[in-house]
Design brief:
The chain is an alpha+beta fold. The chain folds into two domains: 108 residues, no CATH class; 93 residues, Chitinase A, domain 3 (Roll), CATH 3.10.50. The protein is built from ten helices and six strands. It has a four-stranded antiparallel β-sheet with strand order 4-3-6-5, sandwiched between helices. Strands 1-2 form a two-stranded antiparallel ribbon. The two termini are 56 Å apart. About 8% of the residues have low confidence.
Length: 280
């Protein structure tokens, strides 16, 4: 069964799971928001269907709006009919419904207030300023692209240096003689910055110029290395476009938590245990 068909089949259940939508009749509709249905005289506007579409799970938004429109409209119609029938049955007057409605109203009021506060604090300018702050120390660091040949003894390393000085290809020699895990890849270590390699290796590698090779074996805890630097570059931070979603989400969480904490600090709160006795 396709999503559109399943939505038609279970429309009421789907739409009742969404946040409340404005389905009541109101002033004359705008030209760009026509009436798309009436249910016992009550209008359903195109904007109601658009809002329902926006509240669907992300995977369902892959279905084009025009294609899913009939199914969403059917769901709104069914929801409106079910709500009308519930009112006739006076379900909305029952204590259980009133209690749930009160709880929902408080949650909606609270989330709406926090959302407004977050939107006030987390502006585009504020997000850009946070990006500039975060990336200020990320750029400007040097990285090198190096290869190495790892050998068990100093004499073996010296022999390899002699072969390379005589014209042997570094990558091919690494494939044949390196005992390190990068050997099959021609000794390629990719780009790395300071602090990512053991100190002896790092010191020797960063001392080389682009295209340079160590003229003496470098001893580390892993063995004896012959190192060649393929390239040098300055590390660039991620772009604003790459980091913006993550930064915005982080700032929204921070703003919401700070606002809630402020409400707590201004309130008189007393907590009790499960048995009703005062909590310590």
């Amino acid at each position: 069964m396709t999503f559109v068909n399943s939505l038609r089949a279970g429309g009421i259940a789907v739409m009742l799971g969404l946040a409340p939508m404005s389905l009541a009749s109101g002033p004359a509709q705008a030209a760009d928001d026509p009436v798309v249905a009436t249910v016992n005289g009550t209008k359903i506007m195109r904007s109601d269907v658009t809002q329902a579409y926006g509240q669907l799970p992300d995977q369902y938004k892959q279905v084009p709006f025009e294609q899913i429109f009939p199914a969403l409209l059917d769901s709104l119609i069914d929801t409106k009919l079910a709500a009308g029938a519930a009112r006739k049955a006076k379900i909305d007057e029952t204590p259980a419904f009133q209690a749930e409605l009160q709880g929902f109203t408080e949650r909606l009021l609270g989330s709406t207030l926090i959302q407004r506060e977050v939107e006030t604090k987390v502006t585009d300018a504020a997000v850009k300023a946070r990006y500039d702050e975060v990336t200020k120390e990320m750029g400007g660091k040097s990285e090198i692209h190096a290869r190495h040949i790892l050998l068990k003894t100093e004499d073996e390393a010296k022999a390899v240096i002699k072969d390379l000085a005589g014209g042997a290809d570094f990558a091919e020699t690494a494939k044949k003689k390196s005992t390190g895990p990068s050997g099959p890849n021609g000794g390629d270590l990719g780009y790395f910055g300071q602090g990512q390699m053991v100190p002896e290796f790092e010191k020797a590698a960063f001392a080389l110029d682009k295209g340079g090779m160590t003229d003496a074996p470098v001893k580390t805890q892993f063995g004896w290395h012959v190192i060649k630097v393929e390239d040098k570059r300055t590390q660039q931070p991620p772009t604003f476009a790459e980091m913006e979603p993550q930064i915005r989400q982080s700032m929204m969480r921070e703003a919401g938590a700070a606002f809630t904490q402020g409400l707590r600090e201004d309130a008189k709160i007393q907590r009790f245990n499960l048995d009703g006795t005062p909590a310590n």
